[in-house]
Design a protein that fits this description.
The longest helix has 17 residues. This protein has a single domain, classed as Rossmann fold (3-Layer(aba) Sandwich). The protein is α/β, with parallel strands linked by helices. It contains five helices and twelve strands.
């Protein structure tokens, strides 16, 4: 199956989930993340604001042991900014909430972990995103390539294998409501 068709099918499946089930599964993902050694050893974590029923990690954001960074889409790249609960957000170009443009930026050497949203992941650590290539471009940059990265998806979107292209970048781990799998 080609990526576009698979993406449509899995997004439809995800969006059919009832809100109580979505919340419960999201909470389980948060619990598994907190138990992950990659998460526990981090101080500055890049995350995302849930969009189109992606797993919601917002319960984690109030934990003051961590500094949280969130993306802004700038052209074809992601710019990372510090954000704390209660600080203003704005709606970005894709309908995704982003920190304000004047929020402090984060440089790669400050970041310990990247939590990567996706439509699906596979058991080799590859991710199917929304087709914009933002995370693949980010993870291709030398200063970001060595950062630990965890794909965040629901278990029904953790597949045995995804179709991949030369530019697709492998994640270090995937976390679902059933647990976290570390691949490399």
């Amino acid at each position: 199956m080609e990526k576009a068709q698979l993406r449509r099918q899995l997004l439809k499946l995800r969006q059919s989930m009832q809100s109580a089930e979505w919340r419960e599964k999201s909470d389980h993902i948060c619990t598994h993340l907190q138990a992950s050694p990659l998460f526990a050893s981090a101080q500055t974590i890049l995350a995302y604001f849930s969009f189109r029923q992606e797993p919601d990690l917002s319960p984690l954001f109030t934990d003051t042991r961590y500094r949280w960074g969130f993306p802004r889409c700038v052209g074809k790249s992601l710019s990372w900014h510090l954000w704390k609960p209660g600080e203003p957000q704005e709606l970005g170009n894709y309908g995704i909430f982003e920190p304000q443009p004047d929020a402090p930026t984060l440089e790669p050497d400050e970041v310990d972990l990247i939590l990567v949203p996706g439509v699906a992941c596979d058991r080799q650590g590859y991710r199917l995103g929304y087709g914009g290539g933002y995370y693949d471009r980010l993870l291709s940059l030398p200063e970001w390539a060595s950062k630990p990265s965890i794909g965040i998806v629901f278990a029904n979107c953790l597949l045995p294998q995804l179709p991949i292209d030369d530019w697709d970048k492998c994640l270090q781990a995937v976390c679902t409501e059933t647990g976290c799998d570390i691949f490399r």
